[in-house]
Every structure is written in structure tokens, then in C-alpha cells.
Specification:
The protein is α/β, with parallel strands linked by helices. It has a domain of about 230 residues: Amidase signature (AS) domain (Amidase signature (AS) enzymes, Alpha-Beta Complex). The protein has 15 helices and 11 strands. The protein binds glutamine (GLN).
Length: about 450
């Protein structure tokens, strides 16, 4: 029997043989994973059904989110074998609602990447075309969300676009919440001032359901916002909403992508919204500022992986100094991109360069934030392409320089720097999916979900 039904059908249905369902999901996950490497580790679902709002639902968890007793390595070889003795707050939340962990999804090491090719454990492949990337860094989450032939929701993470990018490339929905709305307790840090946990699903309703479960204040996270848990609705439409279209977000964008996004904006207009063109002039500085801030924070975060506390250990030889020991473990455990970012980030923080780079980047961040604030005085939400391109082939990714790689994030980085919520929704039914990026002011997730639901209906 097949189980290709929606999450809500699954949760409402009373006549599913759960034992049969679990056997199907386990076999199907292993089959998909052997071909497409969505998971860093696959967990066997158990037949005991739990109660709750997610009763029995398989949920995949990005590898950088700690799961008790299950390897949580953030896609890095340096954390190989690390099994946390605790669950992240979001993981406790989904378990309390009766879901089961399907597995830990493959990702770029510590979130460092846009195509998931920087994983320490094989590269996830796009289920729509295995010669292409799923996107990154939550590539495994995007891939399994698109490929699953059973109800499923993913928990992913974004620092500078890692939920939106794979959602766009795999043709699924990805929600990056307001910074601080979802607890980061138990998230393996990339850059603390930027990291957000958020859901990915096949539909806007799926991500709304998951947000209702994971959002809300957590005393274990000092940056958690004092928000109550609530039910996020997707109903209500977009009549009377004003959509801002930032003109800078359509520069250097693939023609097919910008066409699909514009077509959808026009359809949203027919559904009762209006649009205005606006300008966000600091967009061109956001990418450089992001890569300075993100690598500066990452370089300090990675200092704790020295081969003593977590994951990879090597043998301490007689006569070997600690520095030699650390260097050996870190040389073996970190991939090339992690090493590059340690060097970049350390350089940006060095005395003598700090004012020139790091402090300047923080000023640009404030500019970006203020421009969004100003924009939201004129419009209810912003609409733009999520990524400037559709999912590229691995053979083309190989040809990119590190800088060209970073430039792919030009559209996702500004809202991530500002910490505003964003939703990527598929907006084209062509061969390769195109994502529309909806962005709103702080804590306006519900507005995004309502608009996303309209995009889903008109596309
Ligand atoms: N591609 C971006 C980077 O490499 C964003 C990654 C992320 O959001 N984790 O930093």
C-alpha cells in the first residue's frame, strides 16, 4: 500500500495501520537514501504510536540540531561519533506532540555552503534531477521533503538562507522565522546572531503546523523572544495587502526565474493584493557584511572542536604538545570550507583590522535593518526571487570560485542579516522549480503564511 497523502490527511485519518505505515516509511527512506544521500543517519521508526498534534508523523531533523543518543555532527567529520546526552528544545517539542525522528538530514559542514557539496558525509542529490544540487546548507532536508512519498515535515536551520535556498531548488516550502522566535537551545552554532531553526514541508499548511509547535519563549535560550506559543493560521487571503517589489532583487537574476516571480505577483494582484516597486539600496553591501559577520562568529564557535570534548579524537602521543594535538585533529576533522572560514573570520576580528572589517560590517547590518523597516511602512510584505537561478548541476558548481559561490546568496542574505521572517514558496511549474521569497516585518509570520497559501493556489 502507498501512503502518498498529505500531512493533514494522515493526522486526521483513523484507519491507517500504523505498523504497515512504519514498515513502508522505513523501507522507502532507506531506498531513497541509498540513491540520493539525504540523511547523515537514518533512524528506524518504531511501531508504537504516540498521541499529540503530530501523532505518528515522521519528522526529519537537520544534522546540526541535537538529538539525544543519535549522532549530531552538523555535517562535519570533526563531530563524528558525537551523540548528545540531550534533545534540542525543538526536538523535545516535536516528541511531546507524538512525532518520530526519521533521521538526521545531510548538510554542508556547520551550514557553510549553498549547495550541500561541503558535507563531510557525501552529497545529497536533487530528486528532480540527480545531476543537480538540492541547494544548501539544508540540502538533505529539502531533498527528502520533495522526494518523500509519505507525509513528513523537516526541521532545518538558516544562517544566511539555508532554508530558503533548498526550498527553492527542490520545489518545496521553507519558513525561516523571526530571529529568536524559535529556540536555538541545542542547535550546533554556526553564527549565533544569525542562526534560526525553521520548518520545511510540501505545503504552506505543513510549515504553519510545525511553527505552531516549535515557536515560543524558551528560558534555555538567552536570545529567545518573550512570545507565547500560538496557532498560526494560513487562511484569510491577501485582499488589500500591499506587496513591495524590491527592484535590486531582480538585477542579475536568471530570466526564467524573474519571469515566474513576476507572473505570480500579477496573479496575486488578481487575488486582491496590489504592488508597489520599492528600493533597498544597501542590498549590494549586504553580502560582504554577511560573510564578515558570519565567518567572524563561526571562527570563534569552531574553537571548541579541538579533539578533547566532542566527536573526533586522535591519539595524544608522548612528547606531543597540546597545540600539536589540536592542530592534528582540526586538520583532519575540518573540511576545506570550514578552514577557509576560520581564516577569514579570524582575520576580520584581528586587532588592526577589526574596525576596518568587522565594525564596518555591523554598521552595514544596521543600514540593512533600517531599510527593511522603512520598506514595511509602505508595504505589508516583500516579494522577490528566492535564488537568482534554478538548481545548478554539480559539474557547474565545481567550476565556481569560493567568491562566486558566496555570491549565490545575494538575495537570501539581507533578510537573514535583519532577522525578519521569510517564506520560500514554489511559484513555477516548469521542469525546474523556482522559489518566490516572501519577507515580512518582525513576527509577521502569519501574514507570510496567508500570502504563501495564495501563491500555492494561483501558481
Ligand atoms: N550559504 C550561506 C553560507 O554559507 C548560508 C548558509 C546557512 O544559512 N547556514 O553562509
Amino acid at each position: 500500500m502507498g501512503y502518498n497523502i498529505s500531512v493533514s490527511e494522515f493526522l486526521e485519518s483513523r484507519d491507517i495501520d500504523y505498523g504497515d505505515f512504519v514498515a513502508y516509511v522505513n523501507a522507502e527512506t532507506r531506498r531513497l537514501n541509498s540513491k540520493l544521500f539525504f540523511f547523515q543517519s537514518v533512524c528506524e521508526l518504531k511501531t508504537v504510536e504516540q498521541n499529540g498534534k503530530l501523532s505518528g508523523l515522521p519528522v526529519s531533523v537537520k544534522d546540526c540540531i541535537c538529538t539525544k543518543g543519535i549522532q549530531s555532527s552538523a555535517g562535519s567529520a570533526i563531530l563524528e561519533g558525537y551523540k548528545p546526552p540531550f534533545d534540542a528544545t525543538v526536538v523535545s517539542a516535536i516528541k511531546n506532540e507524538g512525532s518520530q525522528i526519521l533521521g538526521k538530514t545531510n548538510q554542508d559542514e556547520f551550514g557553510f555552503g549553498t549547495f550541500s557539496v561541503n558535507s563531510g558525509y557525501g552529497v545529497p542529490k536533487n530528486p528532480l534531477d540527480p545531476e543537480r544540487t538540492c541547494g544548501g546548507s539544508s540540502g538533505g532536508a529539502g531533498g527528502i521533503t520533495a522526494a518523500a512519498t509519505f507525509p513528513h515535515i523537516a526541521l532545518a536551520e538558516s544562517t544566511g538562507g539555508s532554508i530558503s535556498c533548498p526550498a527553492s531548488f527542490c520545489g518545496v516550502v521553507g519558513l525561516t522565522p523571526t530571529y529568536g522566535l524559535v529556540s536555538r537551545y541545542g542547535l550546533i552554532d554556526y553564527a549565533n546572531s544569525l542562526d534560526k531553526i525553521g520548518p520545511m514541508g510540501k505545503t504552506v499548511d505543513d510549515v504553519a503546523l510545525m511553527l505552531s509547535i516549535i515557536a515560543g519563549y524558551d528560558e534555555m535560550d538567552s536570545t529567545s523572544l518573550p512570545e507565547k506559543q500560538k496557532h498560526y493560521s494560513t487562511e484569510g487571503g491577501i485582499k488589500g495587502m500591499v506587496i513591495g517589489v524590491p527592484k535590486e532583487y531582480f538585477e542579475n537574476v536568471d530570466e526564467q526565474v524573474s519571469k515566474s516571480v513576476w507572473n505570480t505577483i500579477k496573479k496575486m494582484e488578481s487575488a486582491g493584493a496590489s504592488y508597489v516597486e520599492i528600493s533597498l539600496p544597501s542590498t549590494k553591501y549586504a553580502l560582504s557584511a554577511y560573510y564578515i559577520i558570519a565567518t567572524a562568529e563561526a571562527s570563534t564557535n569552531l574553537a571548541r572542536y579541538c579533539g578533547l570534548r566532542y566527536g573526533l579524537h586522535s591519539e595524544l602521543k608522548e612528547g606531543q604538545s597540546f597545540n600539536e594535538y589540536y592542530a592534528k585533529t582540526r586538520s583532519a576533522g575540518f573540511g576545506e570550507e570550514a578552514k577557509r572560514r576560520i581564516i577569514l573570520g579570524t582575520f576580520a576580528r584581528m586587532s588592526g583590522y577589526r574596525d576596518q572589517y568587522y565594525m564596518k560590517a555591523l554598521k552595514v547590518r544596521t543600514l540593512v535593518i533600517n531599510e527593511f523597516k522603512k520598506a514595511f511602512k509602505k508595504c505589508d510584505l516583500l516579494a522577490a526571487p528566492t535564488m537568482p537561478i534554478t538548481a545548478p548541476k554539480f559539474s557547474d558548481i565545481q567550476k565556481l570560485t569560493p567568491l562566486e559561490n558566496y555570491q549565490m546568496d545575494v538575495l537570501t542574505v539581507p533578510p537573514n542579516l535583519a532577522g525578519i521572517p521569510m517564506l520560500s514558496v514554489p511559484c513555477s511549474s516548469g521542469k525546474l522549480p523556482v522559489g518566490m521569497h516572501l519577507m515580512a516585518d518582525y513576527l509577521q509570520e502569519e501574514r507570510l503564511l496567508k500570502a504563501g497559501k495564495v501563491v500555492e493556489a494561483v501558481k
